[in-house]
Amino acid sequence: MSTGGYTTRVDAGARERALKILHEKFYDVLKDVVEGRVPRLVIKKRTLSNTIYDPERKLLLLGDATFERSFLDLREARKFMQTMLMASIIYEALTQGEYPTIRDLYYRGKHTIRYRKIPSKAVGEENTWDEQAESDSVLRDIEVFINVLREEMLVLSKEKGKVVGDLRIRSGDDVIDLSKMGHGAYAIEPTPDLIDFVEVNADFVLVVEKDAVFQQLHRIGFWKRYRAVLVTSAGQPDRATRRFVRRLNEELGLPVYVLTDSDPYGYYIYSVFKTGSITLSYESERLATPRARFLGVMMTDIFGSRKLGKSPYLSEEERRSFIIRAKERDVKRAKELREYPWFRSERWQIELDEFLARRVKLEIEALASKGLKFLADRYVPEKIEVGDWID
Amino acid sequence: MAAVEESFKSISAAEFFYKNKEIAGFSNPARALYQTVRELVENSLDATENYGILPRIKVSIREMEVVPEGAYYEVIVEDNGVGIPPKYVPQAFAQLLFSSKYVLKQSRGMFGLGAKMALLYAQITTGQPAEVVVAPIKSKRVYGFKLKIDIGENRPVVLGFSTTSNISGTHGTSVRLITLGDWSRSKQRIYEYMKRTAIVAPYAEILFRDPEGNYLLFERSIEKLPPPARETLPHPHGVDIETMKSVLKSMPNSPLAETLVKSFQGVGTATALRILEEARLDPEKMSGDLAEQEVEALVRVMRSYRDVKPPRADHLSYLGEEIIVAGLKKVFEPEFVAAVTRRPSVYEGHAFVVEAGVAYGGKVPVADRPLVLRYANKIPLLYDEGSDVVFKIIDEKRGIDFKVYEVEFPAPLIILTHICSTKIPYKGVGKEAVADVPEIEEEVEAALRGVLRELRSYILRKRRELEEVERAVEIAKYIPEVASSLSKMYGVDPREVSVKLLEMLNSRLRSFKIADLGSVVV
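Above: the input entities. Below: the structure tokens describing the complete assembly.
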């Protein structure tokens, strides 16, 4: 657990570190140019084939395969220019003490290049980048290239994660009591590393995929009754939420349970929390929570399991009204998941096989419809109690 | 048999052509004016280039008097050629079928007939004599003649003769005719003829003054002349009954064997004797004594006699690749031009050489099909394209597929073909189309495919170069951005970085360089 200190000092340190690495890493490009070599960047590939699952650490990590981004390579020239542009924008923001968002970086770099075509002499116009997806992509390349995460470069992004619970944190110069948020909740800040945990009264963390279910559980006082820190990612988890959950687990030693829809997308959200994502595997070391547990909703919660000696939480009639027929893409996604090494455990194969056999899915809201009390006072505590979760 | 010969003799050659003037292209005033210009210009070209002289030719047409059928025109054609010796001038210009011996030589005019037909036509339409001035090469004097033709007797009539000292030391021939013509109906044709002549004679300087007072000058763009045509004897395989008769008639008092040896190429005494034996003819028989059937038998044996060398081609005067290229460049200013001269080949006992040229892009007009310039013995063939062998070869449906050569119409494409031979197999009397003799067709197609292959590699190379240029611009346009980024991070001069990056890019370009970044980045 971090022991306080002013975040402004933390900020300054982070800035200096990031600046130094950025300056050093890109210096090679300048050296190439000055010495007459074709400037190029050698960057680790962010592809599925270069994403390696480390079963020991239960993490998705970036492999060692690299690609070369050379300025004189027609296919890479634009990306090279964009990478250099992004590096210089971040460099300037760091030196000037700013906190740009990824949207800011997009706007700061976006301008029009006007050029004359040969031989037609027609004037062509081209934006340095058109969509934010383009500037985001080179930002990720820079994170990988210099091995520094954007948060460490004081780059902010819009975060949607929320948290409530009996804990007090220091963010900036304020101490915030997360048990006194009324009907609202604390929005996790984009740089969760700059948060200090001041005081914590909780036994576990419950991460809920759906914002609506988070609010329902908050309203009926679930976190008070069960000494929980209640977190929602509101869909696909962003980096700040994942980093915050990781710190709750790693620094405070709180077990983390994840509650998602019972479909391949929900299962994958859980795996992002636990092992990292394929597209952002370079961040896993800092963002993933390898000990996070999948609480539900499981296929075997809906249908029970003879193999596991488990009886279903839903009656035949409830099943008929709550479950939804799986779509073709759900089935396709489930088949993909079954092949991922981190879903290869026997327990996950039972769930995925059950899904593929039944071809149905269930949203968490359906359990709340059966009764909020059922969800809050029976389903969640009972499953934690008996250990009906997947590690 | 003898009666036929008698009746042929009973009218003079001049009279015969007068009665059949359309055969020589003098069928109406418009056609006649064009033909007059053409015959005189071709004589002038033959009189210069065949003797190693770079031609300088002046052509002038003036309207003298309007008449119901058209108008009387003064036509003057002047050259810097060798100049005919004065004693031959009357026969050369005013006696039809005047020739000393029967030899073959590739020349523009056939039988030396054209200029005489022009004189004859002028005389019968306007009654005016021709004025011929000659200054033979190295001659100290200049000789002037006023000539007419005695049509009934086929004899030149000299109406006037004068001579002056050749003070300037010039040489050449000048012919002045007053003839019936129709400029407005032949204008286009004459201009087209001038232009097409200039294309294959880039070594000539031609000045043309038309009746409206406009001058057109084709400047000389190359100092090189085609190899001169040399005389050669006919080849046994190419002989026909008429030629054989003429040969025999020219040496009536020499034994057959001797006549064959002296009159045909590739025939020595041994060969002559074997030929005559096969034709069952007495080698000692006098040449003038052969009967019609004997002539036929001799021709038959000679045409099929195998043990004789193929016809010689070294006497042919082809243009050569350099001249075709220079001519096409000069007249059309194309982006690409190529030419090929094929090796000599033979059809029916006649040697021939095919040449082809191609001009593409630049100022060549874009059209739905190639513009075809056909030549035979350096004479432009302007009409009857549809029945020419070349037309068959490039026919849209059955001929060469231009797409194979990366040409998609509409396209700026000119094709030039030149066939030279001591005997061009013309189709019809108009002499504007070459017949599709298989050997010639094969050679023309090979020549065309040859130049089209060069065009294809040019188009492909250009396309590759264009792609390289486009690719280079795709990179160069980012240089200032990269330089500015490095400048922001390291405080270096962005211009220096730009220069370095541009150097690096340029060193990798093969077909062109970007001289200045300012030409790319706006």
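Note for the figure: The first strand of chain A starts at residue 40 and ends at 44.
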